[in-house]
Amino acid sequence: MSLPELFRHRDRFIGCLAIGRVPRKREGERLRAGAREALLDAGDAAAFDALAQTLLHGADSTFSIVAHGYDYPSLARCPALEADGRCAIHLQGKPVTCEVVPLDPLVPDRLQHIVLAGRKESAGYLGADCIHEGEFDGAAPMVAQGRVVDASAHDALTRRRVALEAEREIWGRAVFAALRRDLFESPAALARIPSGGFLTISLVPALLAVAGASMRCRDLCVDYIDSQIALIERCIEGALLRRRLEDRPVTQELRSFAQAYRQARATLAQPLPASRVQDEAWVAKQAVRVEAYLSRG
Ligand code: SF4
Question: Which stretches does DSSP call E strand in 62-116?
């Protein structure tokens, strides 16, 4: 999810940061998923690089830092999923990342058929049979001949990439810089990022990055923090009633998120430090930009 989407759905999703590794793809490498395989040519590698340079972080653009909705994995369902199988927020700003499914914004359009092959396999594992190869009466293709041909899928993919790029610009770079020494330059800390998965940490570094833009941004962040602390407490209460052993580490992590929020709230109660940027017009422009961004959801 994007930060504005988390702000919009603050009473439903617990926000956090998800940090993953996205190894650089090189010419001659094989990409395998399900029954499909592609041998990457120079054009494929360049297309991966182009996406990485605008969406990822690090010298080799190999780290993803995204805002993320978090919940107890043991519940095995999205907090917005209704009992009848519908999405409770479908008409109230459903996250763009949900619209992108089953495509992957970090993979070039020309290779989305490989993504679909992988999704087909995982969907089968979950008991779903919703992705088919070939043409069928009454079903429009999603990808064909190296293009995403379904207009709504293509639009969602574009919007998600635009959102990821905005996230990177507005708070991602600042978070990467803030975590550089303790995470990205520490082999021991990097070992905590699981291969093929991601490390979850508090959303606070992103909030601190945007809160400094203006008093209004700070107020928006404080409101968000208050809602999140209340939501975390409700979620933990529910987990304590369920009494499942596997929930314990998640409860512990949620408590650490709540603690980080309380500390951030205390930090934000202090006067904003004077901007190091002397250009007042730039500061004002940046404030308007971030305020508009946070209210976008
Ligand atoms: S579309 Fe599904 S995953 Fe996305 S918010 Fe709605 S219920 Fe959750």
Answer: 63-70
Residue in 242, 168, 239 with CA at minimum distance from that of residue 17: 168
Q: Is residue 24 within 8 Å of residue 59, measured between CB atoms?
A: no
Number of domains into which the chain is organized: 1
Ligand 1 centroid–CA 78 distance in Å is 6
Pocket of ligand 1 (CB under 6 A): 78, 80-81, 87, 89, 94-95, 98
124-133 residue pLDDT tens: 777 788 899 9
Question: What is the distance between the alpha carbons of residues 10 and 262, in angstroms, rounded to a whole number?
Answer: 16
> What is the DSSP code string of 167-212?
HIIIIIHHHHHHHIIIIIT-HHHHTTS-TTSEEEE-SHHHHHHHHT
* Widest distance between CA atoms in the chain: 63
For residues 202 and 261, is the Cβ–Cβ distance under 8 A?
A: yes
Do the beta carbons of residue 131 and residue 119 sit within 8 Å? Answer: yes
Q: Is the pLDDT of residue 275 over 70?
A: no
User: What type of residue sits at position 231?
Assistant: L
* 245 residue type, one letter: L
Residue 81 CA: nearest ligand 1 atom is: 7
Report the C-alpha gap between 196 and 23 in whole angstroms: 10
Query: Ligand 1, from 77, 87, 90, 97: best to mutate by most atoms within 8 Å of Cβ?
Result: 87
Query: How many whole angstroms from 87 Cα to the centroid of ligand 1?
Result: 5
Tell me the CA–centroid distance for residue 76 and ligand 1, in Å. 12
What single letter denotes the amino acid at residue 164?
L
Over 90: is that where the pLDDT of 2 sits? yes
Residue 210, CA atoms < 13 Å, CB-side half-sphere: 29
- Residue 74, domain extent: 3-294
Yes or no: say if 74 and 246 are a contact pair by the CB < 8 Å rule.
yes
What value does the mean pLDDT take over residues 195-219? 94
Amino acid sitting at position 76: A
